[in-house]
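Quick one before lunch.
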Amino acid sequence: MNRTQLGKSGPTVSRIGLGAMGMSGAYGESSDDESIRTIHAALDAGVDLVDTGDFYGAGHNETLIGRALNERNRDEVVLSVKFGALRGPDGSWLGFDGRPNAVKSSLGYTLQRLGVDHVDVYRPARLDPQVPIEDTVGAIAEMVDAGYVRHIGLSEIGSATLRRAAAVHPISDLQIEYSIVSRGIEADILDTARDLGVGITAYGVLSRGLLSDTFRAPTALAANDFRAHSPRFQGENLTRNRELVELLAEIADERNVTVAQLAIAWVLSRGDDIVPVVGARTVERLTETIAAEEILLTSDEVARIENAVPKDAVAGERYAEAQMAQLDSEA
Ligand SMILES: NC(=O)c1ccc[n+]([C@@H]2O[C@H](COP(=O)([O-])OP(=O)(O)OC[C@H]3O[C@@H](n4cnc5c(N)ncnc54)[C@H](OP(=O)(O)O)[C@@H]3O)[C@@H](O)[C@H]2O)c1
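Model of the NAP complex:
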């Protein structure tokens, strides 16, 4: 696995990262044992960037990663942790807290659950509209000075906020959705990040599994699966989106790769400063993901992919309306 630096100030990480969110119920049931095997398989393959959030399964995800790391050397992994999303005991979303004391309190609990003495990249999951970004980033910067955090990242914020944040402390990377069907960052955020020397950790590279062989056939979704409520997976939208996946499948078949691998390869082709963080909760999925790193697309193939699925071709937003309204990146 090749390596790249996150932005000009961030850590050097594997060219593809592992997203652990699905290991804590975001896409329905998962097995802790298989999740731990998946994390170990990732580390063994040289995938050392592991992304989590303290609100994934209300701490379950961090505890799980902590268990996986028990048997490993702390320095084998680059831990990227999101905080600030508030959730009720029933899993409901209650808003965001980016106040300085909330930053420090959240970090204390995170270190306990992970069983580590520092986090490599710490980032607010969303902008708290009640708290200036300077205050949130300033509090993380104090935690950097105290040795509990190595680098500061951000998530789903727009260009203006990114500039304000970077004026307070160097930002290693912006975590934001980016895929062949979610190309919003190309309008200005990507240029701003490049201008500031901020890397991109791209999530939703498979549009939550839409860009894969799985959804080419009708697929039942559990009520607690994010996709059961995601606009792109509903009714006519899903029918339209499956047509797009069929077009990608034609190109993937010619290269003898899967649709998911083609989607990952397309993001990889967008620049060395963009690291896809792909979700997987089984070793099988992870293995397919890792193999995508070796697919080098020609400029003709990139053009074919973008012609088959032009910007804005996808049906449905990437989040439901209420969640879209919480994205500074979409403001
Ligand atoms: N900053 C943010 O706001 C934010 C938001 C969401 C996610 N994230 C982070 O980004 C990570 C990745 O995002 P994501 O999980 O939402 O989206 P994703 O990577 O686009 O999609 C993950 C889904 O695709 C499926 N999948 C993976 N490889 C596949 C393959 N080869 N064939 C078919 N399906 C495949 C996974 O299945 P299985 O689960 O069955 O393995 C999972 O259901 C998350 O784990 C999380 O760490 C960040």
